[in-house]
Design a protein that fits this description.
Layout (H helix, E strand, L loop, with lengths): L21 H7 L4 H32 L5 H49 L3 H5 L3 H14 L1 H28 L1 H8 L2 H36 L2 H9 L3 H24 L2 H27 L7 H42 L21 E8 L9 E8 L4 E5 L6 H6 L9 E6 L2 E2 L5 H7 E5 L9 H6 L7 H10 L3 H6 L17 H15 L3 E5 L7 H15 L3 E5 L11 E6 L2 E6 L1 H7 L2 H15 L1
Parallel strand pairs: 3-8, 3-9, 6-7, 7-8
Antiparallel strand pairs: 1-2, 1-4, 4-5, 9-10
GO molecular function, one term: ATP hydrolysis activity
Membrane topology: Multi-pass membrane protein
Family: Belongs to the ABC transporter superfamily. Siderophore-Fe(3+) uptake transporter (SIUT) (TC 3.A.1.21) family.
């Protein structure tokens, strides 16, 4: 069991501006500006071509038909058909390019978030639910898909169409144009209010989706299913999930209906505008005002109707953008997380380390609010030597060992490998130098061979077998129907605890690190299985610098040096015989361990 740690929380952001500011979102599209420029050209060309159709219609009604000019009529009709074809072709090309750009931006976001999470400190993952992380990548980025892939293009397309249409309407009749646009400022104000309302609801909805994803991840894992069924809590878990889902139903409905009536009112008013235009033209004609030709009136109404779709779409796009800002904000929160463990600009690299490890006046605490987990630790492990760290639960054993591979960084003092501060080493060198075998063995849902090759992707079949033999697991693998192609199952549940541990040891043997960290690698095993795993560990440890954390003291008696930690400080140190002669804390731990073994 590891010591309790304070909750991990993201660092506070500087300033008061929301992270999803428009300029930052626009920078996501910067690498694709050439393609977006092409989309802009297509949009502009499509808008210009589409507004030509009403002018052709006016000429048909006012000139070609009244004057009986069949040739002109055919030419104008053909022009209208060509206009429709060209507009459609431009629209398809525009959709293809914009969707490709949008999907590339989505890919960039997903990759950036995943890469950022790979760099986060271990404390982040110990205090963040897996479902929350998955929800950010799947639900939040997935929820932005429509915005990223189509909204930006829709915004440009509709804005261009609105401008081109308004200019064409002014060219036909400026008085009717003013009548058509009188209510536009009111519509913009309404859409902005609706957008702010949906943005708030979207933030709540995404948080609820993250909570539900976390529930699913935890309760539908192999461990969760086993726990739920053996505790008789399956029905309770289902009821809990139903309650979470019910909350999401309400938020989804609120999100869909937010401002729906107000936006519908805008649509109704704009759809009624042709009637207003006909009415205004009729009143002007009856009262002796300026007359409008039938062709001009029909062409104007056609333009006004053409204005309806992009105008309403433009207002709706504004609402969608407001909604998507909440999603961008959640993604940018992850991208802005502070990465505490970083690689120096000019790091030190080793071809092959000798393996001397030193802890020089090491101090460590998880955050400023908590007390020191480790204090004034001074230890030296010669290259090829062995150090055992023992002590009660919560004394800082695992934390101390995790400082060597930089799963945590010291807050005082330093840890060195061959005299070089581990913070000065590049990550690849550190990963090649330090191998970790922990109690909690993790295996991917893949074949045995794939799990082993995770340590060395180019390993040959012979190397896999050699490593498996050294880990005392080859015979078992060979006895399986599919041998090394056998799927290990979710988290390796098709294998026993001892078998998984030996697979982990084989994986580390393939990695061949000069320094080995054994973090309670046999504490959860029965005596017989422990003996088999210990044989594998002994083979793995030969010739390597080994740091062992253990509850069962029988596994560390032969260590060159044994250190007893208590409350993060060195209480005792020496060989097994020296510490027994002291008759102190180590001797008490040995007696307790012996009593527990006899009782078992």
């Amino acid at each position: 069991m590891k010591p309790d740690r304070p909750d991990w929380t993201p660092p506070p952001r500087d300033g008061t501006q929301p992270p999803a500011e428009v300029r930052r979102i626009l920078r996501l599209f910067h690498p694709y500006r050439a393609r977006l420029a092409l989309v802009g050209l297509l949009v502009g060309a499509s808008s210009l071509v589409s507004v030509a159709s009403p002018f052709l219609l006016r000429e048909i009604l006012d000139v070609a038909i009244p004057q009986g000019r069949t040739g002109l009529l055919s030419l104008l009709a053909l022009g209208m058909i060509v206009t429709a074809v060209v507009t459609s072709v431009f629209g398809v090309l525009q959709t293809l390019i914009s969707t490709t750009v949008g999907q590339r931006v989505m890919h960039d976001l997903r990759t950036a978030v995943y890469a950022q999470l790979q760099r986060m400190p271990l404390a982040f993952f110990t205090k963040t639910r897996t479902g929350e992380v998955q929800s950010r990548i799947a639900n939040d980025i997935g929820g932005m898909q429509a915005t990223v892939t189509s909204t930006a293009t829709s915004l440009v397309s509709n804005l261009t169409a609105v401008i081109a249409t308004v200019v064409a309407m002014l060219a036909l009749d400026w008085r009717l144009t003013i009548v058509s646009l009188l209510l536009l400022p009111v519509f913009v104000w309404i859409s902005r209010r609706v957008g702010r309302e949906r943005r708030k609801i979207t933030t709540q909805r995404q948080k609820q989706m993250a909570a539900m994803a976390a529930t699913v991840t935890e309760s539908l894992s192999v461990s969760g299913i086993l726990l739920g069924r053996t505790m008789g809590r399956s029905d309770s878990l289902t009821q809990g999930f139903a309650a979470e889902s019910e909350k999401l139903v309400g938020l989804e409905v609120r999100s869909s209906m937010a401002g729906r009536w107000r936006m519908s009112t805008i649509g109704i008013v704009m759809a009624a505008m042709p009637a207003v235009i006909y009415w205004a033209a009729g009143i002007a004609l009856q009262t002796g005002g300026p007359s409008v030709s039938i062709g001009t009136l029909v062409a104007f109404v056609s333009l006004q109707q053409g204005l309806l779709r992009p105008a309403v779409s433009l207002l709706s796009t504004g609402v969608d953008i407001q909604t998507s800002l909440a999603l961008f904000q959640r993604i940018f929160e992850y991208l802005d997380l502070r990465v505490d463990i970083t690689e120096r600009a000019d790091p030190v690299r080793f071809d092959r380390a000798k393996g001397e490890v030193r802890f020089e006046d090491v101090e460590f605490h998880y955050d400023e609010r908590s007390g020191s987990t480790l204090d004034a630790i001074d230890l030296t492990v010669p290259a090829g030597g062995s150090l055992a760290i023992v002590g009660p639960t919560g004394s800082g054993k695992s934390t101390l060992s995790y400082l060597v591979p930089r799963l945590y960084d010291v807050t005082g003092g330093r840890v060195t490998l061959d005299g070089v501060d581990v913070r000065d080493l590049d990550f690849d060198t550190l990963a090649r130098t330090v191998g970790v075998v922990s109690q909690e063995t993790y295996l991917f849902h893949a074949s045995v061979a794939d799990n082993l090759r995770f340590a060395k992707p180019d390993a040959t079949d012979e190397e896999l077998e050699e490593a498996a033999r050294a880990a005392q697991i080859h015979d078992h693998i060979a006895s399986l129907p599919d041998g090394y192609d056998t799927l290990v199952g979710e988290r390796g549940y098709r294998f026993s605890g001892g078998e998984k541990q030996r697979l982990a040891i084989a994986r580390t043997i393939l990695r061949d690190p000069p320094v080995l960290i054994l973090d309670e690698a046999t504490s959860a095993l029965d005596t017989r299985t422990e003996h088999a795993v210990q044989q594998a560990i002994d083979g793995l440890s030969a010739g390597r610098t080994t740091i062992t954390i253990a509850h069962r003291l029988s596994t560390v008696r032969d260590a060159d040096q044994i250190v007893v930690l208590d409350a993060g400080r060195t209480a005792e140190r020496g060989t097994h015989e020296e510490l027994l002669a002291l008759d102190g804390r180590y001797a008490a731990l040995v007696r307790r361990d012996s009593e527990l073994t006899q009782a078992a």
